[in-house]
Each structure stands twice: as C-alpha cells, then as structure tokens.
Amino acid sequence: MGDDSWDLITCYCQKPFAGRPMIECSCCATWIHLSCAKIKKTNVPDIFFCQKCKEGARKPPPQPPRGSAEA
C-alpha cells in the first residue's frame, strides 16, 4: 500500500504536501506548509496556531440573541 500523504491537501494554499516541510496547528490539527505560515526551518516553534485559529481567538464570544428569555 502506498503513502497517500504526498498528494494530501491540508494547507490553506490548496497545494499538496509534496515533500515540503509542514507544521501542525496545536488547536485544530491542520497541517500548514512552513512557507505558508511564514516560518523558517531553523525557527520552528513548539506550539503553533494557524491563521484561522488565531483569528477565531480574537473574536468576542457570541452574544445571546436579543429578546431571549433571561430573567
């Protein structure tokens, strides 16, 4: 059985792994190319958050809908 990871697309650039170095988001477990994450191979962090998770963390928590039945 062959290794399908070579053609697997997980990065938001929509290009496959193809042997390029990648890093896994510590939050959502999505794999991102180091070049897409703007990370140098010589400076890979232990903990990494992808752009979607970083943006999600900055959003305020959702507010309850107006007119909800809270006493």
Automatic annotation (TrEMBL):
Residues 10-54 form the Zinc finger PHD-type domain. GO terms for biological process: autophagy; negative regulation of autophagosome assembly; negative regulation of autophagosome maturation; positive regulation of protein ubiquitination. The keyword Nucleus applies. Its main location: cytoplasm. Keywords: Autophagy, Cytoplasm, Metal-binding, Nucleus, Zinc, Zinc-finger. One of its GO terms (molecular function) is zinc ion binding. It is found in: Cytoplasm; Nucleus. It comes from the Eukaryota. One of its GO terms (cellular component) is cytoplasm. InterPro entries: Znf_FYVE_PHD, Znf_PHD, Znf_PHD-finger, Znf_RING/FYVE/PHD. Belongs to the PHF23 family. This is PHD finger protein 23.
